[in-house]
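Most newcomers find our protein records easier to grasp once they have seen one. The structure tokens are whole numbers drawn from a learned vocabulary of backbone shapes. The record below serves as our worked example for the rest of this section.
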Amino acid sequence: MTLQDAPDTPDALPGEDGPAPAQRLGMLLAWHGSAAETRMRRALSAAGLTPRHAMTLMHLETGPVSQRALAERLEVDPSVLVGLLNDLEGEALVERRRDPADRRRHNVAITQAGSAALSATNAALDAVERVLFAGLSERERATLRELLSRIDTNAEDFSCGE
């Protein structure tokens, strides 16, 4: 069933004109979010990555980061990050090194292969976003980005199927 096939609600919201029923904003956002996620996952899988793997590489793009700081940036439990890093390290996309200043701490760095994978990933995601947002001007995209940043969500709201 598509969003357009969903049963109409009986009444428009107060103050709205016209015969068209109101669409629930949360449902509309979820519908488009699900479609966008499906397209993004396809693009990432073609590059051999999951969304979490891609986000991890994106956070490492600017240079090495402590494992603790990376977990905070990704908003994941450290045990989850260890699994992600094990996967990425197994593919030689990242490497963990002891911090020379504090041997108890590990720093994580993207490798040359990881940078190449990230470049391919970014190209695939760029192509998806060009299609997704083709109907929006640059200004509208900036507005959408700003509005979405104000939606009240946090890491506990997500269920990861990876």
The longest strand covers residues 102-110.
